[in-house]
Amino acid sequence: MAFSFFFRDLPTLDTAVQHMVAQTMGRSRIRVWVAGSAKGQEVYTLAMLLAEKMGYFSFQNLRIEATDIEAEFGEIIRRGIYPKAELERIPQPYFDRYFQPTEQEGCFQVIEPIRRRVTFTHHDLLSLNPIGDGFSLIVCKNVLLHFQPAERVEVFKMFHRSLATDSILANEHTQKLPAEVVPLFQQVASDAQVYRKVSLHA
Ligand SMILES: C[S@@+](CC[C@H](N)C(=O)[O-])C[C@H]1O[C@@H](n2cnc3c(N)ncnc32)[C@H](O)[C@@H]1O
Fold first, then answer.
1. pLDDT tens digits along 101-151
2. Is the C-beta atom of 141 inside 6 A of ligand 1?
3. For the chain, which domains are there?
4. Ligand 1 geometric centre to CA of 68 (Å)
5. Can you give the pTM of this predicted structure?
6. CA of 34 to the centre of ligand 1 (A)
């Protein structure tokens, strides 16, 4: 099910952004992966938070890669057009800054400088083939709860391999890490499921 909404679980996203931005300061190429992105509400929320936190120039170095098993969500994300009823939870300053009216009555579009930073790829997490590596942040929320426990463990291991050294993973606040992968991540805040990659040395 693709239930999602803008500014969902803001404290987790805020914590993740704060730690990622501190970690990537001064870098010229920053990759973020939002896995199980549904119709784009989460990935665009994250992009807006990052635009605020990083500032104009650093934000241009960012590439946010949204993925979902539902390929048709790609077109919805690329267009970034949503009915006003879906945008009610967005704080007014964000709505004013990052949305523009469209020719479709009652619909608004995410502005182009934000859309330009976001790409979409059709991807099945259970393939266990990551879309790349060197990610500074991976956000995967409200997806893994539908998987079998053993599958969850393998997906967390894939995320660990895909993250750059010391980079950040964000999970939904109701989900704890499976015991098998606890050694791979260090929680960065006691009140959020946000973790820093622990590098394992042979
Ligand atoms: C409940 S929505 C969560 C959306 C968003 N992450 C959030 O927290 O609001 C779950 C999403 O996971 C996607 N999904 C389910 N199984 C998946 C899989 N094996 N690989 C990738 N995405 C999957 C669904 O298509 C859906 O869009």
1. 999 999 999 999 999 999 999 999 999 999 999 999 999 999 999 899 999
2. yes
3. 10-197 (3.40.50.150)
4. 6
5. 0.97
6. 10
